[in-house]
Design goal:
Blueprint lengths: L12 E6 L2 E5 L9 E7 L2 E5 L7 H6 L3 E6 L9 H8 L3 E4 L13 E4 L9 E7 L4 E7 L4 E4 L3 E2 L12 E2 L19 E4 L9 H10 L1 H16 L3
Parallel strand pairs: 4-5, 5-6, 6-7, 10-13
Antiparallel strand pairs: 1-2, 2-3, 3-4, 8-9, 9-10, 11-12
C-alpha cells in the first residue's frame, strides 16, 4: 500500500455524508487516507483541503455552487488552487498563515475568526513556525472540521481509540482550542469522520493522549520494522 498517491484520481470514495455536506477520499487505498470535505451553507459550497478527482464537480453541485476553497493547514494546499480556478473562486487562508501563498497560483482571500460571512468559526489550533492549523466549527449544526490535530487513520490511533491525536502532538495536545465545543460530528483530514458520539470521542482523544502515546509509538515502530 502506497503511503501517498500523487497522480490525479479518476474516481473517489464518498465518506461523511450528512445534510450539511460530504467528504471524499480521492485515493482510498493510500495509507495517508487524505480526506477532503465540502460544507453547504445557504446554498453555497465551501470546499475544504481538497484532493482533486474526476466527478467532484457533480458531487459539489448536489449541495449548491462552489463559493470558496479553504486551506486549513499550511501543509494542506493539495489541489486547492486547481479547484478554485475551475470554479473561478478564491482560495481562502487564515490571516496568520505565512508562506502558503507561494504555491497557490490563483486569487487568495483571508479570514480571521469567521470564514467570510458564513457563521463558521475559525479556531486557531496551532500557530508555530513549523505548524499552522485552524479548525472550522459550524455552531448551526455542530460540525467540527479538524484537519490534522486528530484523525482516524491507523497511524493516529492507539488501541481502541475512535479518534486519535497526531503522533507529533500526543505529549502536548492543543486541547484549549476546543474548549466549550461539543460537536455532533468531527470531520478529519486523514480518514473517515466520527459521525456519532463525536463529543465523547474528541474528549477521550485529548484526555488519553499522553497516556496512550507509548502504545502508539510502539505500534508505529513495529509497522516500520523490516520483515
Amino acid at each position: 500500500m502506497a503511503f501517498r498517491v500523487d497522480e490525479r484520481a479518476t474516481d473517489f470514495r464518498e465518506i461523511d455524508r450528512f445534510e450539511g455536506g460530504v467528504g471524499w477520499l480521492a485515493h482510498p487505498d493510500e495509507r495517508m487516507q487524505r480526506a477532503s470535505h465540502a460544507l453547504a451553507i445557504d446554498g453555497e459550497v465551501w470546499v475544504i483541503d481538497p484532493v482533486d478527482a474526476e466527478g467532484l464537480d457533480e458531487l459539489f453541485a448536489e449541495f449548491g455552487d462552489v463559493t470558496g476553497v479553504v486551506v486549513t493547514l499550511d501543509r494542506h494546499k493539495r489541489d486547492a488552487a486547481a479547484i478554485a480556478r475551475r470554479h473561478r473562486v478564491p482560495v481562502y487562508l487564515p490571516e496568520f498563515f505565512d508562506g502558503v501563498t507561494d504555491d497557490i497560483d490563483t486569487a487568495v482571500a483571508r479570514f480571521s475568526d469567521e470564514l467570510s460571512d458564513t457563521g463558521i468559526r475559525a479556531l486557531t489550533v496551532v500557530d508555530s513556525r513549523f505548524w499552522q492549523e485552524v479548525a472550522l466549527y459550524n455552531p448551526a449544526d455542530r460540525t467540527l472540521v479538524i484537519p490534522e490535530t486528530v484523525g482516524t487513520v491507523d497511524y493516529f490511533l492507539a488501541g481502541d481509540e475512535r479518534l486519535g491525536v497526531h503522533p507529533m502532538l500526543r505529549l502536548n495536545p492543543p486541547r484549549a482550542a476546543f474548549r466549550g465545543i461539543r460537536p455532533e460530528r468531527v470531520l478529519v483530514g486523514h480518514g473517515a469522520g466520527v459521525m456519532d458520539g463525536a463529543a465523547h470521542a474528541l474528549e477521550d482523544a485529548f484526555k488519553s493522549s499522553r497516556r496512550r502515546a507509548p502504545r502508539l509509538y510502539t505500534e508505529a515502530a513495529w509497522d516500520f520494522l523490516p520483515i
